[in-house]
TrEMBL record:
All residue ranges annotated as the Carboxymuconolactone decarboxylase-like domain in the record: 40-120
InterPro entries (alphabetical): AhpD-like, CMD-like
Signal peptide: none
UniProt organism field: Maribacter litopenaei
Pfam families: CMD
Protein name: Carboxymuconolactone decarboxylase family protein
Entry-linked SUPFAM superfamilies: AhpD-like
Amino acid sequence: MALVNPLDPNHDIETKKLAEFFNETLGFCPNSVLTMQHRPAISKAFINLNKAVMANEGRVTSALKRMIAWVSSNATGCRYCQAHAIRAAERYGAEQEQLDNIWEYRTHPAFSEAERAALDFSLHASQVPNAVDAKIKDRLYKYWDEGEIVEMLGVISLFGYLNRWNDSMGTTIEGGAVESADQYLGKHGWEKGKHDGSLY
């Protein structure tokens, strides 16, 4: 079981209505949100932040945002968020070749130089200590404007929160997320880990 049990989806009606957003992104309401609703102000604020961060304002596509999330979650080791990010990337139209080769984004021809710059930014920004430097900045500015960089860092920061939340919580992973992770990440050793419901 997780550190704290998720509550019934009907526990907080405002959270339930806001959480309809996840039916589009994932096909289900995540157990992380159902756990956050122990304090509904947190679940509602999180969903609204998620919606703002994932809104399309420029050329940073929904699929790229989810791949940025995956790189960030992979860097921090959160298997729950890795699975959710790759599932959402799939649902938002990431190319099959990109999904199959996300681990090799730096060299695989399915990724453009602009996408590589964005994904490297995610990798460096997610490390502790933070590794964003002038070289990363220069590469970003070659392909992206400041508003787009803000969007990317919004995704990275949102998943920083989620990585801490779900790895500390040992959030039980949902079947749909497992299915996507097995398909795209299993060949590289992805497994449920502490998110199989038996950590605590």
